[in-house]
Design brief:
Shape: globular
Largest sheet: none
Distance between the termini: 51 Å
Mean pLDDT: 80
Strand content: under 5%
Length: 376
Amino acid sequence: MEKPEGTLREVARLFLKLGFTAFGGPAVHIAMMRKEVVDKLKWFDEQYFLDLIGSTSLIPGPTSTELAIIISQKRAGRKGLIIGGLCFIMPAVIITGFIAWLYKLYGTSPKIQPYVYGIKPAIIVVILSAIYPLAKKSLKSIELGIIGILALVLCVLGYNQLYIMFGSGFLALAITAIKNKNNTSSFLPLMLLQVPTIGLTGISNTRLFFTFLKIGSILYGSGYVLFAFLDSEFVQKGFLQRQQLIDAIVVGQFTPGPVFSSVTFVGYQINGVQGAVIGTAAIFLPAFLFVALLGTLILKLRESKLFSSFLDAVNIASISIILAVCYELGKDSIADWRAITIAIASCIVTFSFKKLNSAWIILGGAGLGYILQVWI
């Protein structure tokens, strides 16, 4: 199923490359990781990669970052967990920190909207082209197909992704138990860690740390869910201007790597370099701890017939959630002839040059977006 343990060097090389080239949100990061570790490097097969996605989807935190961490752990052990995770995170953090410094110095963000405009259609094409093999692999039965359709509909209707994933898993458990005339007494649900924010006055670095630690410990879903937390924790309490949060979203979309690196930008605006470092460390720390403590346990539970059905349902629900993300992105971003042109061009390049790195598709979309928005 997977090769013998690899080296820290190869893990560092892969995730440093992805850290500099993985533009877009979690869905496109997952697609790029699959292309690298399944298609190119042959570290894992499709099923094992799906299980890695399922296990990271069940624990709080940034899914694509946790996927990078658990891949690194499976390939190069405990040291790999740390090295791979840091190599994926740090390029985005450094780039975002530099932009945050310029922003505070000059009072504005770089004029990058034309590039972002072109990135979104290209990202949708990249995600759909990579998710198709995973969808085929995860569709193991009619029951799973029905669960996947239900999950997709609920996602599009706006229901909480956490409830959809766990609901899909428990529905599959019930179906399996009925079919096997068994009971689920041997299945123990995982408890979620929830860290309360310490009620300190002011916006001290201590409060910053525990606020971001809390968010990293309980947040499920995409980076857009993160921005909702940031709005309630900082904008509504007067520590951050709404325009600063909007600019943090733009920077998070345009820079490579985890969208959670937007926290570096926010932390810098609140408390300078110290705020950036403390916020970044706090938001990502739970991801390393959860993967180290729970990631392998969830994978080992795959040997249980009941939990196996649970994880299969979570896998297909995860695919449905990614498809729903594509739908929402497409609804908002492919709305005129320019965006349609970028999407069609990205499709042609993606399916004509299947070995081409996804980063080039995304960068090409950014360039075409700039040309169509500024010159035409």
